[in-house]
Amino acid sequence: QVDLIALYKSGKLEIDNWIVGFINGEGSFYLNKGKCNFYIEHTDKQLLELIRMRLDFGPNVLERSARDRDLGKVRKVMYQLNISSKKDINQLIMFLDNKDNIPLQGYKMVQYNEWKEAWS
Q1: CA–CA separation, 103 and 13 (whole Å)
Q2: What stretches of 3-98 adopt beta strand conformation (E)?
Q3: Half-sphere exposure of 30 (CA within 13 A, CB side)
Q4: How far apart are CA 91 and CA 97, in angstroms?
Q5: What is the mean pLDDT of each run of 10 residues along the chain (120 residues)?
Q6: CA 110 → CA 12, 55, 71, 105, 119, distances in Å?
Q7: What does the pLDDT read at residue 28?
Q8: CA atoms within 13 Å, Cβ hemisphere of 1
Q9: Phi, psi at residue 16, to the nearest 5°?
Q10: What pLDDT sits at residue 57?
């Protein structure tokens, strides 16, 4: 497996637009008791660590244990990056509003704009 974090640290991996696309597909902007939150859940911990590192988020990537689902089928282990601090939310907004990056698309952009409006 390629060490994406080492490639990123070496400067040989441009990831900003990839992160926007990943957020577009896997990210979730939501309000909890009026407080802005954002999370991404995925089966690849290294990808979430890479996003956490690039965006300088504070919290660690958390492991969510595999669970039994319908008729005893086992779900893969999932990892989650969840942010809610003022610093991390501001970092995310600066990143997503950066005109050098492709913008979010479709309903995710609508969701983001409503979320960001609640943040203001």
Answers
A1: 20
A2: 27-32, 35-42, 62-64, 68-69, 73-74, 78-83
A3: 7
A4: 10
A5: 70 82 95 92 92 94 74 77 96 96 96 93
A6: 33, 22, 37, 8, 14
A7: 96
A8: 7
A9: -60, -50
A10: 96
Q: Any idea how long the chain is?
A: 120
Residue 14 tokens read as 């441009």
Residue with tokens 């900003």: 16
Predicted confidence at residue 72, as pLDDT, reads: 62
Nearest to 78 by CA among 41, 52, 47: 41
**pTM (2 d.p.):** 0.83
**What is the SS3 assignment for 15?**
coil
What is d(CA 61, CA 117) in angstroms, rounded to the nearest whole number? 27
